[in-house]
Design brief:
Blueprint lengths: L1 E5 L8 E5 L12 H10 L9 E4 L10 E5 L8 H17 L4 E5 L7 H16 L17 E5 L5 H26 L7 H15 L4 E6 L1 H6 L3 H7 L7 E7 L7 E12 L8 H4 L7 H16 L4 E11 L11 E3 L5 E3 L7 H14 L4 E6 L3 H7 L3 E6 L2 H14 L2 E4 L17 E2 L9 H10 L6 E6 L5 E2 L9 E2 L4 H10 L1
Parallel strand pairs: 1-6, 2-4, 2-5, 5-6, 9-10, 9-13, 12-16, 13-17, 14-15
Antiparallel strand pairs: 3-4, 7-8, 8-10, 11-12, 14-17, 18-19
Helix pairs in contact: 2-3, 3-4, 4-9, 5-9, 7-10, 9-14, 12-14
The structure holds ligand BES and zinc ion (ZN) (2 copies).
Length: 488
């Protein structure tokens, strides 16, 4: 969606106004009283995300006015504004309007975070994955929104809107990758997309290295190769690198890129497989970050490492009981081929360790247990540095993405001891602390520096439309990662 900025309301397009519950009033709006009276007549009370559509008589700022309720004034946060932006888009879309105006409500102390949230709400809720539909049901597409802000905020609002647009469009780019059918979004196709992202960033100090099967074998990545054995599609490791002049520090982003997780020979039940095209959401979010990097130019060096393969049960598939050797020399007894994310990350983390980054962040749809623990709106975070967690959490607060820390209890490592190899890929203590066990396994492959593991199994995907999230891939945690890179 195109987002314009103005300090004037035009009569030509519908106008969206936000109103609080209880003290329903529209300051500085000509005919505001009359508009509200009519809305009340329709039963509108300003309840959170309720709407009223009015066609006021002349004198009003626009001939079509949409009111969106924000609920009780004292509970309004930037998330309320982001969600209200989504409500506005959906209402205007249902009215088949090509463009509309929206008045920034000026309710939060920080006007710029309000404008930021509103813009994100508009862009993120405009997203739809219609590529494979013969009929979208939309006759007229809502293409353009004009944000009305007071003249004194106009200059700073320009920058804010620009940032919000880049970040949310990058999240939508990631949604597209996650939503593609798995037989199309293969490891090879993700590599082609990584190349496209690199081409866009080439002139902004972004480089790329692509490792194919033979090079992976040469580097000793037996763990990633083991997972790949049951698949007809070749594996890849992609290394994107952004190095701005005078970089303050370096961050390695390491992503799980399982383009389809059948579970392998430890086959998933049919229903659990239905969403497993999303098992590359971690890797996809890193491509989203690199899509935005040339536009926002963070002052830190960034490595993006994507471990790409399918997890399939073909005739050559790795088997429970097999022992794989990772790049750092550690041997892994595989007892469940469905715990494959940690196996591909073992090699990708060992590779990242060689780059000696100050900070390593791995991003993975790693465990179903994390969805049980934290639900579909919160990612689990585990690592060796509380400050890094706080930085991530704070970056998440800027864009409405939530993280919660789980403890890496060393005693739980006991369960990962193998009688025949250095470590097992699942714990002998089943059904307990599944996400933490995943984190403890990964820790064995991190080679120094600050590290955090983000288990995004829940928030990377939404089963249903939810405010500014559409059904399917969510783009999580692309926006958080970008805020984090801008904050350090
Ligand atoms: N990709 C799954 C985790 C997952 C489940 C992500 C549901 C999103 C939604 C992962 O590879 C997996 O299968 N993990 C196993 C680990 C177990 C075998 C220790 C799980 O969670 O059951
Ligand atoms: Zn799995
Ligand atoms: Zn998986």
């Amino acid at each position: 969606m195109k987002i314009n900025l103005s300090s004037f309301v035009s009569k030509k397009t519908p106008l969206v106004l936000f109103v609080c519950e209880k003290d329903l009033f529209l300051p500085n709006i000509p005919e505001g009283k009359k508009i509200l009276e009519d809305a009340k007549g329709q039963g509108f009370t300003g309840k959170e995300f309720s709407t009223a559509t009015l066609q006021p008589a002349s004198g009003s700022p626009s001939s079509l006015v949409v009111l969106v309720g924000l609920g009780d004034k004292k509970n309004i946060s930037s998330e309320t504004i982001r969600r209200a932006g989504a409500t506005a888009v959906k209402r205007v879309r249902s009215l088949a309007q090509k463009s509309f105006q929206v008045l920034n409500p000026n309710l939060l102390k920080n006007v710029s975070s309000e404008i930021y949230a509103l813009t994100e709400g508009l862009v993120l809720s405009d997203y739809a994955f219609h590529k494979y539909k013969s009929n979208t049901g939309e006759k007229i597409r809502t293409e353009e929104a004009t944000l009305i802000v007071s003249e004194k905020y106009l200059d700073s609002a320009k920058e804010t809107v620009h940032l919000a647009k880049i970040l949310s469009e990058s999240a939508c780019f990631v949604r597209n990758l996650v939503n593609e059918p798995p037989s199309h979004m293969t490891p090879g196709n993700l590599v082609s997309l990584a190349k496209e992202v690199w081409k866009e960033g080439k002139s902004s100090s972004v480089s790329i290295k692509i490792y194919e099967k033979e090079s992976l074998a040469k580097m000793g990545m037996g763990s990633l190769l083991g997972v790949n054995r049951g698949s007809a599609e070749p594996p890849f490791l992609v290394h994107l690198h952004y190095k701005p002049q005078g970089a303050r520090q370096s961050v390695a982003l390491v992503g799980k890129g399982i383009t389809f997780d059948s579970g392998g020979l430890s086959l998933k039940p049919a229903e659990a497989m239905e969403t497993m095209k999303m098992d590359m959401a971690g890797a996809a979010s890193i491509l989203g970050v690199f899509r935005a990097i040339p536009q926002i130019k963070p002052k830190v060096e960034v490595h993006g490492i994507l471990a790409l393969t399918e997890n399939m049960p073909g005739g050559k598939a790795y088997k429970p009981g097999d022992i794989l050797k990772a790049m750092n020399g550690k041997t892994i007894e595989v007892l469940n081929t469905d715990a494959e994310g940690r196996l591909v990350l073992a090699d990708a983390l060992a590779y990242a360790g060689k780059l000696k980054p100050d900070v390593t962040i791995d991003i993975a749809t790693l465990t179903g247990a994390c969805i049980i623990a934290l639900g579909s709106l919160v990612a689990g975070a585990m690592g060796n540095d509380d400050t890094l967690f706080q930085q991530i959490q704070k970056a998440g607060e800027k864009c409405g993405e939530k993280f919660w820390q789980l403890p890496l209890i060393p005693d739980y490592k006991e369960g990962l001891k193998s009688p025949v190899a250095d470590i097992k890929n699942i714990s002998s203590v089943r059904k307990e602390a599944g996400s933490i066990i995943g984190g403890l396994f990964l820790q064995e492959f991190v080679n120094g520096g600050h590290w955090i593991h983000l288990d995004i199994a829940g928030p990377a995907w939404s089963d249903k439309e939810f405010h500014y999230l559409s059904q399917g891939g969510t783009g999580f945690p692309t926006r958080t990662l970008l805020h984090y890179l801008l904050s350090i």
